[in-house]
Amino acid sequence: MTASETSVPLVIPQLIVGLGNPEAKYHETRHNIGFAAVDMLARSWQISLSENRRFQGLCGEGRGPKGNKIYLLKPLTYMNRSGQAIRAVTDWYKLPPQSVLTIYDDMDLPVGRLRMRLSGSAGGHNGIKSTIAHLSTQDFPRLRVGIGKPGDGKAETDTISHVLGKFTPDEKPVVSEVMYLVRDAIELSLKEGCEKAMSLYNSRSVVGTKP
């Protein structure tokens, strides 16, 4: 390992945010896969989530796999104002943007895939657009979880109904397996940094079984 490699600090998440919409009608929709991921992490790490009005979200704190303090957040601001809740938490706990790992849905990835990055544009995602605006930077890690596209030649209304719709019966087992990949990738990022998780999990995929 070169000196230049050893001098680069590891990106270790401290706040893990799942993006979604709060109403019951959005529960288990494709757009809420970030909420589902945080719910799974809360169960795995035995962290209870409760509403915090100061943070405009459901949040909790506990210990990660290395014993380090971890904060979990599900903004209740609706997707396009997610950054308000995230900024409230980072200001209160004095967390740098680089410690905020955001989990959200991505139509450009098929169901069964995930992709972690250290920075980047919003790519048309309103939740990330709001997060970038409130953190005043694009330099924060994010984990995109594939929800697939509605199909070629579909109108914009079909795209909206796809994003706000639920996974098909064939897709649900794949999504369940992907949640384990999400958890494993995040746990590795907490132990060895996001770059290590990227190198091992960005090429992984879950393939559904078709009748």
From TrEMBL:
Superkingdom of origin: Bacteria
Keywords: Cytoplasm, Hydrolase, RNA-binding, tRNA-binding
InterPro entries: Pept_tRNA_hydro, Pept_tRNA_hydro_CS, Pept_tRNA_hydro_sf
Pfam families listed in its UniProt record: Pept_tRNA_hydro
Annotated positions for site Discriminates between blocked and unblocked aminoacyl-tRNA: N21
EC code(s) of this entry: 3.1.1.29
Annotated site residues (Stabilizes the basic form of H active site to accept a proton) in this chain: D105
Residues binding tRNA, per UniProt: Y26, Y78, N80, N126
Catalytic activity line of the entry: an N-acyl-L-alpha-aminoacyl-tRNA + H2O = an N-acyl-L-amino acid + a tRNA + H(+)
Location in or out of the cell: Cytoplasm
GO MF annotation, one: peptidyl-tRNA hydrolase activity
Subunit structure, interactors included: Monomer.
Family: Belongs to the PTH family.
HAMAP family: Pept_tRNA_hydro_bact (MF_00083)
Function: Catalyzes the release of premature peptidyl moieties from peptidyl-tRNA molecules trapped in stalled 50S ribosomal subunits, and thus maintains levels of free tRNAs and 50S ribosomes.
Protein name: Peptidyl-tRNA hydrolase
